[in-house]
Write a structure and sequence with these properties.
The chain is an alpha/beta fold. It is built from 17 helices and 15 strands. The chain has a 7-stranded mixed β-sheet, sandwiched between helices. Strands 8-11-12-13-14-15 form a 6-stranded parallel β-sheet. Helix 13 links the parallel strand 14 and strand 15. The longest helix has 16 residues, at about 425-440. It is globular and about 65 Å long. The termini are far apart.
Length: about 475
């Protein structure tokens, strides 16, 4: 069969709001989820095409229709987060008019976390819920008459039968992640056409690699519905094989390990670090992890293997707020992890989430002051959005809140406030979101420190873009 997989357009205004202040620093990265689905489909012998329109961040509706008609797919699969879901609906609606005989599938974060909402428009024939690779293969086998004769017997699906929305049994997590083929990057645009946010790289092209799935943390603001809470890891050999591929075949000069908690397994981390030292040409890298999952020895080992930056979800500079987030960390742990990381000569990038249900202007100020006192290189003050699938969303719905996610719900759009804490006026909250970036990044001491910290011309150019984006807020 011919299978078309689409990562839908998501425009500059949808990301940054009317002012589009963050246009030049938007994070444009490959659709690895679709590349994994493409890999398992190709392994089954299907002809697969990926339309990764997210990389262009503009309206590509006519191009999608033209290329889809040219490809003549039997199956059309669309992935979508909550902010992008209205564009997923628009894409599917347009393509149904020209290809009414194709089977339409939807998967990803929003269909998994909010299947009733995703199915309501009835533009998709099937929703793939949770981890998609095995469900996708079994559904393709069903369409070919090779597998089960009834979709009801395939775990991990939702679909309409007459006027009833049917949910099959939940799909169990894939235990052996090494059994999944490496993502089909040959179907994606070249790495050089993507541009991750300037705070996240020193060299381009940069390749993203996911080495594990599932996060055991219990953060109330995080949706874990796709990969679940059980941590599952790829073997170090499997990970290093992908690093070798992206470096030798796709020309990557830097790697970003995109796991939620890259350092959760110390033994595997050591094996990966030892392997990275042997890969030629040598590749620098960054990762994400939690402050309670590092120590000085581990960080030094990472530095010696080429790690130049770690992204921590510090989230808040107020212990009372951290407790309500369910993160299981403290301000003291935040401060200590940053100290250890800098002592290992690794740069620090920090995420803060502001405007959660129990925030006040005092706690917001505490977070901003905390960020300014820490020796961190980049800080992101992300507005809180109660996305479906999160514990905060469930709590707020029980309290009587209702959220319209058909409106722009990007965390970078400061103009569209999906939720405002009861203790903070909307105008003051919006003003803080803008002010936090200016106060952090436009300090003369910070600018001087950044100038001395930059190591490549590529990094310098990215930082200049970021500087003018902050100034334009």
């Amino acid at each position: 069969m011919k299978i078309l997989l689409i990562d839908v357009p998501f425009g500059i205004r949808e990301i940054g709001g009317k002012r589009a202040a963050f246009a030049s620093v938007r994070n444009v990265i490959p659709a690895l989820g679709l590349a994994y689905l493409a890999a398992v489909a190709e392994k089954e012998g299907h002809d697969v095409c990926i339309f990764d329109y997210a990389k262009k961040f503009d309206d590509n509706w006519d191009a999608i229709v033209r290329k889809s008609i040219s490809f003549k797919p039997d199956i059309i699969g669309i992935t979508a987060t909550t902010p992008a879901f209205k564009n997923a609906l628009k894409t599917a609606t347009l393509l149904r008019k020209t290809m009414p005989n194709a089977v339409f599938l939807a998967g990803g974060a929003h269909p998994t976390a909010a299947p009733e909402h995703a199915a309501a428009a009835r533009v998709f024939d099937y929703l793939i819920l949770g981890e998609g690779e095995v469900t996708f293969v079994e559904l393709l086998q069903h369409f070919e008459g090779k597998g089960t004769t009834k979709p009801e017997d395939i775990p991990g699906l939702a679909f309409w039968r007459d006027k009833k929305l049917i949910f099959t049994q939940p799909r169990k997590p894939i235990e052996n992640l090494d059994s999944i083929p490496l993502p089909a990057r040959h179907l994606l645009p070249p790495l050089k056409l993507y541009h991750p946010t300037p705070a996240s790289y020193r060299k381009l092209p940069l390749a993203h690699i996911i080495t594990s799935r599932g996060c055991p943390s219990k953060c109330n603001f995080c949706d874990r519905s796709v990969f679940g809470e059980k941590y599952r890891k790829r073997s170090s050999d499997n990970v290093l094989a992908e690093v070798e591929e992206v470096v030798s075949k796709y020309g990557a000069r830097e790697i970003r390990f995109f796991d939620d908690c890259f350092t959760i397994n110390k033994n595997r981390l050591e094996e990966i670090c030892q392997g990275l030292k042997k890969i030629r040409p040598r590749c620098i890298w960054t990762c994400l992890t939690k402050v309670n999952l590092v120590n000085p020895e581990m960080l030094q080992m990472m530095h010696d293997a080429g790690c130049w930056q770690v992204l921590y979800g510090l989230e808040s500079g107020d212990d009372r707020v951290l407790k309500t987030l369910g993160k299981g960390t403290t301000v003291k742990q935040n401060r200590l992890a940053v100290k250890w990381t800098r002592e290992a000569h690794i740069r620090v990038r920090a995420d803060f989430i502001v405007g959660t249900p129990n925030e006040t202007m005092e706690t917001l100020t505490n977070t901003l002051n905390f960020a300014k006192k820490l020796p961190i290189d980049f800080a992101h003050f992300n507005k809180f959005v109660p996305f479906p699938g999160t514990e905060f969303y469930r709590q707020l719905i029980k309290q009587g809140y209702w959220f319209d996610f058909s409106r722009d719900s990007s965390i970078m759009d400061h103009d569209a406030l999906v939720f405002v804490p009861s203790a903070i006026p909307s105008a003051k909250y919006r003003e803080f979101l803008d002010r936090a970036y200016k106060e952090f990044y436009l300090r003369p001491s910070y600018i001087l420190r950044r100038l001395f910290a930059m190591r490549t011309f590529t990094e310098f150019c990215g930082n200049i873009k970021g500087f003018f984006s902050i100034r334009s807020i």
